[in-house]
Amino acid sequence: MEEGRLEAIWIKRVKRGPMDPVAEAKLVAGQGIEGNANQGGNRQVTLIEREVWEEIMRNLDASLSPAARRANLMVNGVRLAESHGRVLRVGSCRIQIYGETRPCDKLDDAFVGLKEALKPNWSGGVYGEVLDDGRIEVGDTVAWDQT
């Protein structure tokens, strides 16, 4: 079974606002991350892979913080590409993955060319819906739900 680790958590207080790093967060089923600007709908949580981010940075010869991607969670050891419809377990919580997060124009504010670099192969990450209430923290195990 593919298993990884939760590397980082960011909460966005307001739409298009800064991404605040936190060590832990509360997930609310059907809503998202407590205190995050995006609540409800299919796009409650966004996730990126550390390995993909590091490869993009090498390709761009850049050294941006992964917070520049504006995702809520960064994982390692678990491939997010082509994961539509799968359920990802983060600690004791589950997230239903609905699709690929498309890179937005705001990324080029951080580094010109970042938006384009994140387009291929689901490199911009994924988005989904929180299925369980619970707390997550950096270091939690991350794995695809087999049930």
Compact summary:
The protein has 147 residues and is mainly beta. It has three helices and eleven strands.
What would you note in describing this structure?
Helices cover 13% and strands 37% of the residues. With 147 residues, the protein is mainly beta. The strands form two sheets. A seven-stranded mixed beta barrel has the order 1-6-5-9-8-7-11. Strands 4-3-10 form a three-stranded antiparallel beta sheet, with no helix packed on it. Strand 1 (3-12) and strand 2 (19-22) form a beta hairpin. The longest helix has 11 residues, at 50-60. The model has no long low-confidence stretch (mean pLDDT 94).
Radius of gyration: 14 Å
CATH superfamily: PK beta-barrel domain-like
Unreliable stretches (pLDDT < 50, length at least 5) are: none
Report the sheet-strand fraction. Answer: 35-45%
Q: Write the H/E string, N to C.
A: EEEEEHEEEHHEEE
CATH architecture verdict? Beta Barrel
| Largest beta sheet: strand ordering | 1-6-5-9-8-7-11
What structural class is derived from the secondary structure elements?
mainly beta
Question: How many strand units?
Answer: 11
Instruction: State the share of residues found in helices, binned by percent.
Output: 10-25%
Between the first and last Cα atoms, what is the distance in angstroms? 12 Å
What is the residue-averaged pLDDT? 94
User: For the report, how would you describe the main beta sheet?
Assistant: 7 strands, mixed, barrel
Indicate the CATH class. Mainly Beta
Work out the count of structural domains.
1
CATH topology: M1 Pyruvate Kinase, Domain 3
Total number of helices? 3
Shape: globular
